[in-house]
Amino acid sequence: MTGRRAGRVRLPRPADFRSPNHSPAVAARLGVWLGVAFGLCFVTGVTSHLIQHPPVWFGWPSRPVQLYRITQGVHVLAGVAAIPLLLAKLWSVYPNLFVRPRLWPPVRALAQAAERLSIFVLLAAAFFELVTGLFNVAQSYPWRFFFPAAHYAAGWVATGALVVHIGVKLPVARSALARADRRTAPPAGRRAFLGTALGAAAVAVLATAGGTVPALRRVSALAWRAGDGPQRLPVNRTAAAAGISVPPDWRLLVAWPGGRRAFSLAELNGLPQRTANLPIACVEGWSATADWTGVPIGALLAAAGAPTGRPVRVTSLEGPGRYSGSVLPAGHVDDPLSLLALRCNGEVLHPDHGYPCRIIAPNRPGVLQTKWVSRLEVLG
Questions:
Q1: pLDDT tens per residue, range 180-221
Q2: For residue 304, how many C-alpha atoms fall within 13 Å in the half-sphere facing its CB?
Q3: Which terminus of the chain has a smaller tally of CB atoms within 10 A, N or C?
């Protein structure tokens, strides 16, 4: 009997964890920071999705020209900051895993089971978002599902689970923060732990922010797509990868209800040109600015005799696929900075940047700045 008791393994209990970092005050403080990071990711992520798949009620302006660059940069950097904060949060609360569930009364047992289920869903969705998001900024996709759709759906799941979690834990968090605020000096270990978590998040952001903030590229050792490509701009999809072959008799077709006109490259170059300094801002979070020269879309439609003030469907030489075309909203069509670009940084477009011509419009995701344009269709 004595031998059996001596060999029995006792599971740890919450009382066994005596570190001041395993406290409601630490968990609440980290929860606030993590909630801000997740909130920024959710709002900017939904915004990006709506821009790319706009419902009839949604409108996205063409100005300010840097707005999408900022929102998508915030989206990715907030996700990067959330990684060390989430790990610190898990460290602060993991002793709660060893709390024995109450089986009576049934209502309390059911509430505790629902709480733990919501936490499981929240963690699963949060890790899915953060891990797949990191792979996305690296443009590596070792899975078979379509990343944007899965990432968007999981974002709603994570946010819903977070709302449930906040609703359950809000009284505990408010009480813990109120007690912590009444203290003149929290334990030194607690301050060091919170400072380390916040510092790790800041270092992670600084190490990657150069992909969005050009001034930080020299100190952002892990910045994605910060290197130069052809004409001093990064490239996501090359002409070879897209299978582009420009025919010798290439013409740009401008079509509208009741008419059409084709333009040769020489004719496009003969039209009044405009140069605009605009960013390419991609959903992966990187962005870069260039001087683009071409024909304003509105002026091109007018030269063709087509109506203006309407949306325009843009079609690429690229074969059928998710990104072989886009729709330019009417507000962007009329913006004089929306160009059918023929040159980049003073040079004829490199094939990887869309030769013979591409769309460059202000405040648009790079994925909608269609390259290798072959047709503009004015929609009714």
A1: 666 555 667 788 899 999 999 999 999 888 888 877 877 777
A2: 28
A3: N
